[in-house]
Amino acid sequence: MTRTFLGLPVRRGARTLPDDVAHPGGHGTSASAGRASDAFGDVPHPDAPLRWGDAFPDAARVALQNTQLRRNLAHATSTIRTKRAAVVGEVPDWEALRDAGSAIKTDVMARLPELLEELERNVVARGGVVHWARDADEANRIVADLVKAKGVDEVVKVKSMATQETGLNEALAAEGIAAYETDLAELIVQLADDMPSHILVPAIHRNRAEIREIFLARMGDAPPDLSDVPRELAMAARAHLRRKFLSAKVAISGANFGVADTGTLTVVESEGNGRMCLTLPETLITVMGIEKVVPTYTDLEVFLQLLPRSSTGERMNPYTSLWTGVTPGDGPQEFHLVLLDNGRTDVLADEVGRAALHCIRCSACLNVCPVYERVGGHAYGSVYPGPIGAILTPQLTKASGGLSGHDDPNASLPYASTLCGACYEVCPVKIDIPSILVELRAREVDADRGRPTGWGAAMKAASFVMSDARRFGLAGRAAGLGRVVAGSSGRISTLPPPASGWTRSRDLPAPAQQTFRDWWRDRPVDEPRTEGGERP
Amino acid sequence: MSARDDVLARVRAALGAPAPGPATGRATAGTVPRAYRERGDLTPGSPEAVEVLVDRLVDYRAHVHHAAGPADVATLVGDLLADATSVVVPAGLDEAWLGGLGDATAVVRDARDDPRTPDELDRTDAVVTAARVAIADTGTIVLDGEPDQGRRAVTLVPDVHVCVVRTDQVVQTVPEAVRLLAAHPERPQTWISGPSATSDIELSRVEGVHGPRTLHVVLVGA
């Protein structure tokens, strides 16, 4: 595993920015500066945006050792949970909005071919160009060719999950194109050569002191007396990116919604970096997952209420941009929309699992998840972490074994949950994540049927023992030997494999001295019987 | 097979849908329950709706000012921008609003057919615009790029935005605003809820990043 200073991974072997040009003075000098240092703990080496690092149980065990990470996450998620609860509580028709949002998304999936064609027609009618991409490589190829056709070697980017998922920055870097992330959290992640750990706030695992250190080490033009006050850090980012915004020729964005009946695209953001990218450059390239289409313009009245309150816990996010094709004299005069499949049709083919495509990427489910809060986003090994990631990532990678592959790390993701149901409670479009998790677990078990597994062997043994009263009785008495292993604590904390699978994360109580069967046989027969628990 | 045909074929296969027949035009809508509020209890433009808007704007750290009429707007704009050396205004802005600007403040015009460059806008201290509609419940002001609101860039690059909103433009809920905007969905829209902000550091909100760091909202009686 290769790490840079701060214990951060070198991303996928290809740096996203050229050392000498990008973020002047920072990147170039840092690559070899301190790889030995591991000050901020363990981050797995990413191989692919939807499948990197160890399987969840192993990655989680490592993450749980990182007390700084847990402190940062506990602080951030409790802050956002409180804010969300307050602003959701003041909306009297919240449940009706959720019902509408859920129904609109169900309708979208049922009519997806027609809606995509309608969106395409309307974007083209307003002067846009629509491209289609079967997978990540095809999308990256389309974008790289468009950028090269403009004769530029750098682009500015609005935070976008779709381009995270395709690994666009790395693909552009391989073509000699520098992609500058402009969202503050994405900038932090990019400067640190880190991976995102949250859908909305990719640098949620970093606290202000760590961010200050990253800026000082890698931003180049960060003021030397920079403090760790968030406002000062934000100002440093503003100064750092200002020139880039004013001179950029090409911008790349994602989209929160694409409206079929008007061809309108929507980006919801906070900082104004989105507006900068969507407004100032001459050319705009938007990469959008095919599931992001909504039928009508008025459907936005539902989602623009659900999304901000669910994600940042605000009544409304500071800036929302809507544009339809090209507006002569205002904003980019060349607009490309890339519609991305990349596994989405595999998810759509599953009648139970397809609800994962309803997700509007608010990240409320991450913020309430007891598992996410403790292990953080990196343990999920995907740009989509948390509860939604646990159902989306395996399905998106289904074609390459992500759901059923015995040794595929993604197949362990549906188990990264306590099934407490908090994610379903907060989901603005009512995705029943716990039920889908259970369904995916069943699929994984089914896929393993017939092949020799520890579980299968244990079940066969249990079946042999339990189908015969004498054998069962003997087994019960034999279990009493566990008392020897447990010792005076009354708990068994370590057992050899395969039983270690249990004792790794929980104690096993010592078996009782007397089995139930023995007690039943030996009980005094003249003991007075009571009815309904009342003594005479 | 083109990527387009391939992706669409995969979508149809995933849904178990038959291959498309002759083009049917617009997709037919499914059933969506819309039990949510399509309008609020407060009358558009009412003092109660305006009061809610002000409460939300102040919460976002926007500065709110009240004006009785156009003359009042001019005085307010003059006071707010007394220190500005230059102000950009969209070509269709009400000239009367600029009457209070001092001689030391240069007024720069911008229009789609006569645009200022990003660098010119960056050297401009402030921008004054009108608005299309304001949403009280969420503290949101919507600009739709018409001549009194200007190109999107003019309200983005200068560091101070003075936005004049008529009280009769204030609606209570998001659906009321969306339905009003639906008359011209093709117009480029910017929804503004306070000055630019970020929650990216420990999820605490900090005002003022890339967009205008100061937002003044001047509410003028109809």
From TrEMBL, chain A:
One MF term in the entry's GO annotations: 4 iron, 4 sulfur cluster binding
Boundaries of every Lactate utilization protein B C-terminal domain copy: 457-523
Disordered: annotated span: 15-46, 488-536
GO biological process terms on file: lactate metabolic process
Domain of life: Bacteria
Stretches assigned to the 4Fe-4S ferredoxin-type domain: 356-431
Gene3D superfamilies per the UniProt record, alphabetical: Alpha-helical ferredoxin (1.10.1060.10), NagB/RpiA/CoA transferase-like (3.40.50.10420)
Limits of the LUD domain: 116-339
Keywords annotated in UniProt: 4Fe-4S, Electron transport, Iron, Iron-sulfur, Metal-binding, Repeat, Transport
Basic and acidic residues bias (residue ranges): 518-536
Protein name: Iron-sulfur cluster-binding protein
UniProtKB/TrEMBL annotation, chain B:
Source organism superkingdom: Bacteria
Gene3D superfamilies according to UniProt: NagB/RpiA/CoA transferase-like
Boundaries of every LUD domain copy: 51-220
PANTHER family hit by this protein: LACTATE UTILIZATION PROTEIN C
Cited InterPro entries: FTHF_cligase-like_sf (IPR024185), LUD_dom (IPR003741), NagB/RpiA_transferase-like (IPR037171)
Name this protein carries in UniProt: Lactate utilization protein C
Pfam families the UniProt entry points to: LUD_dom (PF02589)
Organism: Cellulosimicrobium composti
